[in-house]
Write a structure and sequence with these properties.
Elements (H helix, E strand, L loop, with lengths): L1 H22 L7 E7 L20 E5 L15 E4 L19 E5 L3 E5 L4 E5 L5 E5 L18 E8 L5 E4 L6 H8 L17 E6 L5 E6 L26 E7 L14 H15 L8 E6 L6 H21 L1 H6 L15 E4 L8 H38 L1
The structure holds guanosine-5'-triphosphate (GTP) and magnesium ion (MG).
């Protein structure tokens, strides 16, 4: 009894610790608020018609090897103010422009204003967006006194860019899988919330083709409402092209106080969490990996899970209205994800991983193929229209 109790206390302390770690100490910064103001314009020189220098601008630019941590200071809102334009002087009639400021961020950051209006997506190194414009230099039009720069508060939000995003409950084996298929060394342990920040690994195929995969902290029931590690990590799957569900075929129980969920229930809960967070997420191509097949009794559980998935797909196909009509209160999803494939694996032993890797690649390639066709078609339209115009 003592042994059991101590074990229980240890486990629950670890869970508690994880929650807190996520909140405070090792914070992975993926959102920062900043204040930016363009420099003021310099004074003009009415006597000689000299024009003041314009104020410097503030840009946010994606550059390699940057993190949002570099942007964040201890202050609640970091201030970025560009340099003022020089006044026009008798010797130098055209005032020199104020110094521009560049806020350096990693690629994958989107910039919004205070009302969450998107100003720009900085997807590639070099992409930049203007957030505050410098004031005009003094000239006749403004009675020779420079104008103020624009100002405002902005949010810099990091969304990881990876081809594949791992979605799963804690302890399902997501990090073990990432380690098995890439050269990354994520932390792996037998308790929930081992992973507290997203990590991207590169999977290289025999022909050197590379696909990036993001291991994310485990989701739990209520993640969309910011439970557990919260939905702040869910946004990282928004930009992935494929969702890889990693599910322990034995199901999951967060702690003795929480309900046990079998693998099929786990899949539905994940489905629901994604749908409630953003319904488009369930439209993304998805593959289901049922993990830990090396353990005893796993085969039977696998059969049960496969049957449950099969029945569910059939029901939703034959009674689409019924499924659409089910409410979220009774715990059912409105739109069951249709998986491109369901693959039994053992992330630990490597069983099934080759098949998983090649299916992932096929689905991603299909995705790129479709994107290309769509692009070509729309370019074709432009081309045709242009020709018609000439005729
Ligand atoms: N037997 C067996 N154990 C596995 C397998 N995959 C993972 N495990 C074990 O399951 C536990 C959890 O694995 P992780 O890879 O840390 O799980 P995770 O999904 O990343 O968990 P969080 O980071 O907490 O969300 C570890 O003890 C792993 O060794 C598997 O295929 N078979
Ligand atoms: Mg992990």
């Amino acid at each position: 009894m003592m042994v059991f109790l101590t074990r229980f206390l240890l486990v629950s302390n670890k869970i508690k610790g994880r929650f807190q770690a996520g909140k405070n100490r090792h914070r992975f910064i993926d959102q920062v608020r900043i204040y930016a103001r363009g420099g003021g314009g310099g004074q003009g020189h009415p006597k000689f018609g000299g024009i003041g220098g314009s104020g410097g601008d503030v840009y946010v630019q994606a550059l390699p090897d940057e993190t949002l941590k570099n942007v964040k200071s201890s202050k609640r809102e970091q201030r970025y103010i560009a340099g003022p334009g020089d006044n026009s002087k008798a010797r130098i009639l055209q005032g020199v422009k104020g110094r521009d400021l560049i806020i350096k961020v990693p690629p994958g950051v989107c910039v919004t204003d205070d009302n969450n209006r998107l100003l720009g997506d900085l997807n590639k190194v070099g992409d930049k967006v203007l957030v505050a414009r410098g004031g005009e230099g003094g000239k006749q039009k403004n009675e020779w006194s420079g104008t103020k720069g624009t100002k405002g508060s902005f949010k810099l939000i990091l969304k990881l860019i990876a081809d594949v995003g791992f979605v799963g409950f804690p302890n399902a084996g997501k990090s073990t899988l990432l380690k098995a298929v890439s050269r990354t060394e994520p932390k792996i342990a037998d308790y929930p919330f081992t992973t507290i920040r997203p990590q991207v690994g590169i999977v290289e195929y025999d022909d050197k083709r590379q696909i990036s995969m993001a291991d994310l902290p485990g989701l739990i029931e209520g993640s969309h409402q910011n439970m557990g590690m919260g939905h702040r990590f869910l946004r990282h799957v928004e930009r992935t092209k494929l969702l890889l569900f990693v599910v322990d075929v034995h199901g999951f129980q967060l702690s003795p106080r929480h309900a046990y969920r079998n693998a099929f229930e786990t899949i539905n809960i994940l489905n629901k969490e994604l749908e409630l967070y953003k319904s488009e997420l369930v439209e993304k191509p998805a593959i289901l990996a049922l993990n830990k097949l090396d353990m005893e009794g796993a085969d039977e559980l696998l059969q049960e899970t496969l049957e449950a998935i099969q029945n569910n797909t059939e029901t939703s196909h034959s009674h689409p209205d019924m499924v659409e009509g089910t409410t979220e209160e009774n715990g059912e999803v409105r739109k069951p994800i249709s998986f491109e494939d369901v693959i039994p694996i053992s992330a630990k032993d490597g069983e099934g991983l080759d098949r998983l890797k090649s299916r992932v690649r096929e689905v991603i390639d299909e995705h790129y193929e479709k994107e290309r066709t769509v692009e070509e078609e729309s370019e074709g339209d432009v081309g045709r229209r242009a020709t018609t115009g000439v005729l």
